[in-house]
Fold each of these.
Amino acid sequence: MPKPPLSTTLIHHPYRPPDGFVAPQPGVFKASTVIFPNVAALHARDWKQRSGYTYGLHGTPTTFLLEERIATLEGGLQTLLLPSGLAAITLVDAALLAAGDEVLIPDNAYGPCRELARQELQRWGIGHRLYDPSDPGALAAMIGPATRLLWLEAPGSITMEFPDLPALVRAARAHGVTTVLDNTWGAGVAFDPFDLDSGGEGGLGVDISAHALTKFPSGGGDVLMGAVTTRDEALHLRLKATHMRMGFGVGANDVEAVLHALPSLALRYAAQDAAGRTLARWWAEQPQAGAVLHPALPGSPGHDHWARLCTQAAGLFSVLFDERHPPAQVHAFCDALRLFKIGYSWAGPVSLAVPYDLGVIRPGSGRRGTLVRFSMGLEDVHDLQADCEQALAAAFGRG
Ligand SMILES: *Cc1c(COP(=O)(O)O)cnc(C)c1O
């Protein structure tokens, strides 16, 4: 008997492994093409519900699994995955805004969120204004007939002011404006974005949570991914339609990496929180530090708002070196750090430090100086403190 042609046999091999394989981590499914049993099934598939599969871009068992777990993490009902946190921000703007509309963005928001509005949204005829998140009354007064969307962030990415989130959401609700929170800092751990009023009436929450899974859910500093989570089916379907038409997809290897890291998310968040507070308190005693910005430290902007909503905080804080210290000296301090590496992002294993010119990132604040934003990795906190001590001595001299 001649063997059948090898290529065909290897592609259409009849063996199927037995069902019932169970292991700590789920299996990973990879596909662009999804195979249908017949034409009727091809015609009957509904991409809007997770009832079946149409094409790899629109969902696999692996992406559905991560979507469900992120929805649970955030306290939402539906989640969409995107190739980065910034793509998650882009999806929300692109799905919900049209020419003539306006979006309001906090003046301390994640920089690329503002830049997207200044460039792309502007070209598409969508207006934006920056608001002061510490003043809900002023925000309410800014909302006009063209205002469709309100971005929120808690706390501000670099300057770390924690806003009165419930008050800002109430102001938007009173005017029928959709709210979207960049929940990367809280990560679904520090507070529940869809229930900002726990213990109260209930029902007060943001409409949408956008989350850079790049940070805590990945935890490795090696994956880029974003998520958009909702609790309202109609709003989810609007976002999902745009998500599909714009071709946002995620790679199965990256989804696998996030699924692998999720079980330790709460433990890593708590560990980095503890290290962040220890080091922030130490910095508050250093004479070179003009201010230490960490929402869990009394005296930090918005501390009371943080304390009403949260018991936990991300392992992230900024130290302000005021104008007594020229930027070059602060940069020399950063260069002298050994364990802290210079680089963007946070929530990975390696501690990071980035200097920012306060006059550039918050021109309206009236304050000047150089901020260093520290993010805790997973190193021993005593080693991290010793690293800051030696770099301070190197750049500022002793005492
Ligand atoms: C990192 C980050 C983003 C963007 O995430 P990427 O995956 O890097 O695009 C958005 N918002 C906040 C607050 C972030 O820290």
Amino acid sequence: MTEIFTGDFTQQEPIPQASIEAAMAVLNHGRLHRYNTAGEEIAETALLEEEFAAQTGAQFCLAVASGGYAMTTALRACGIGHGDTVLTNAFTLAPVPGAIAAVGATPIYVGVTENLVIDLDDLKSKLDQARVLLLSHMRGHICDMDLLMDMCNAAGVTVIEDCAHTMGATWNGTPSGRFGKFGCYSCQTYKHVNSGEGGLLIGDDPEAMARAIMLSGSYMLFERHRAAPPPETFAQIKYETPNISGRMDNLRAAILRPQLADLPAQCERWNARYRILEDGLRDTAGLTLPHRPQQEGFVASSFQFLLLDWPAEAVQKVLDRCRARGVELKWFGGAEPSGFTSRYDSWRYAASHPMPASDRILAGIIDMRLPLTFSAEDCALIGRVIKSAISTTWQEINDSSNT
Ligand SMILES: *Cc1c(COP(=O)(O)O)cnc(C)c1O
């Protein structure tokens, strides 16, 4: 029996009808710029910020053009610029070191553990090398945030959270993005809400958020925001902060508001799919599943497993066998960066030191998206395809090492 999967790993769900109707209203009146309002009208962008702040429990929220822009703005608002160093994950995606490079700073990479979270021992040894940690909750894996915050607070290191993969997720009941000075989110098509492009920035620090709002290109219109610090906070900041335009527009905000209302239900749908795959792959010889601690309220918009210490040719064989049956897996250990599978040593604009313990993990990480267009049966089928590819290849490895 050779089952073939025919679904598409990059196909998201259509935009919900409520979003389409809200978008049509904006298109019909034509006031797409967030500060272009008629009379007493409240801009969609301002409403989005107000709602996302309430949803996450943050004091302040700023909607921006992308997740990458949210991160550069957070770094700038924390005073990071040319010549500074910033701690960040060795296991993340290109926009993260890119944000650090964009402000003229240099990343210092921190290793990854078998559970695909930042290595807190490695972090501890590097805390004296920077005053900011740009923490990427890569692929939705959340480290022990209580411990991390204790360590960073004690060392005087400011934490900025990259929540591109943790919108809707929690640690010990606290939303991801609420631990650091800023939480940064992406609203582009492959994340948890979809406006094509877009980003959100949340935080409780009035001065830092006032700087972020000025940076985003608010001219002197910050009083039109509804999740911003009071006007007094801007008194000096408005003169001192350059405008680096990266606002969100009302069309995207209109598309996003109904999706944020749906987010909790969507998160459950992702996790139901994750559990099916996890159940299907449990107890597969040669395969390691990351442990998900009980405190982690994750949102599984993607799925990872490890083929730890496998020879590269054997990993490639698993990928080939899966692809032949319609299952596209991504491999972080590939020799060349392809698609989004880049890793710290592929960002050659920023020098890195060898990290053998992390290299061992990265060489074994296999990754796939879990779009909500997949049914429960799709997930079960994908699980069977992967399990069979791994079992066959594992058998071959063991046969050849026994002869
Ligand atoms: C997508 C992504 C971002 C940034 O998102 P953009 O909106 O594309 O700029 C940041 N961090 C991670 C880990 C991402 O995957």
